[in-house]
Specification:
- The chain folds into two domains: 105 residues, 434 Repressor (Amino-terminal Domain) (Orthogonal Bundle); 90 residues, Umud Fragment, subunit A (Ribbon), CATH 2.10.109.10.
- 28% of the residues lie in helices and 20% in strands.
- The protein contains six helices and seven strands, in the order H-H-H-H-H-H-E-E-E-E-E-E-E.
- A seven-stranded antiparallel β-sheet has the order 1-2-7-3-4-5-6, with no helix packed on it.
- A hairpin with a 3-residue loop joins strand 4 and strand 5.
- The longest helix has 21 residues.
Length: 227
């Protein structure tokens, strides 16, 4: 029978029988599900040990045992609870008691705390980016400068290219975020930060007829990056 960290081995109670008990998928199931949760949280493989140490407060040798590829162990109860809380995963799933992953229920206190810090972020952004409108970046066109899911703050009062910068444009039936360079000899150069995407040049004489339309200028960005 597997033991948790910090738990001493005990002689089995002769009155208890394993007959009729369902098999538990704890080893290596717990490790495998934990790794899946870390991947889903965006934690790179090289940072897993550091993330586990930070979440649980345990030392590196201890947390390495939980994800050991050959002989994985199980965390102590407090560490297990902190893992579920941080990764927002129901304990029944990560223990293998159910195959359905459920989100950890959010308590009223946690919900109010979340609303409080979000409100503070909003107030701070409003002071610096007065009059701007939030917009979620979709796609990797502007990565790594702007990543998929980042919150952009857009000045919707800007509807033409006012100096080189990052703009929101309507072009070819799409809404896109692009760095625009206004070159007198060429026209507008629509550029992605991601080198996998080619520049698009809209000739000066064709700017109006091309259908490209500036709908705002990006003046700020909010990005959450896992450490």
């Amino acid at each position: 029978m597997p033991t948790f960290d910090g738990e001493t081995d005990a002689d089995p109670d002769p009155d208890l029988s394993d007959s009729g008990q369902a098999l538990l998928d704890l080893i290596p199931g717990f490790r495998d599900r934990l790794l899946l949760e870390l991947d889903a949280a965006g934690v790179p493989a090289r940072r897993r040990i550091g993330a586990l140490c930070r979440i649980t407060g345990r030392a590196s040798p201890t947390v390495r045992r939980w994800v050991d590829p050959e002989q994985p162990g199980l965390p102590d109860l407090e560490s297990f609870a902190r893992l579920c809380q941080s990764l927002k995963v129901d304990m029944n799933y990560i223990l293998g008691l159910t195959g359905v992953r459920m989100q950890l229920p959010v308590t009223r206190v946690a919900q109010e705390a979340g609303q409080a810090w979000l409100g503070e972020v909003w107030r701070s952004a409003s002071r610096s980016l007065d009059g701007s409108e939030p917009m979620i970046m979709q796609g990797d066109d502007m990565a790594p400068r702007i990543n998929d899911g980042d919150v952009l703050f857009v000045d919707r009062g800007t509807t033409t290219v006012a100096g080189n910068g990052i703009y929101v444009v309507q072009f070819m039936g799409r809404t896109m975020v692009r760095t625009i360079e206004d070159r007198l000899s060429e026209g507008w150069v629509l550029r992605c930060a991601n080198p996998d995407y080619a520049d698009v040049i809209v000739p000066q004489a064709s700017i109006e007829s091309s259908g490209v339309k500036v709908t705002g200028k990006v003046v700020g960005r909010l990005s959450i990056t896992p450490l």
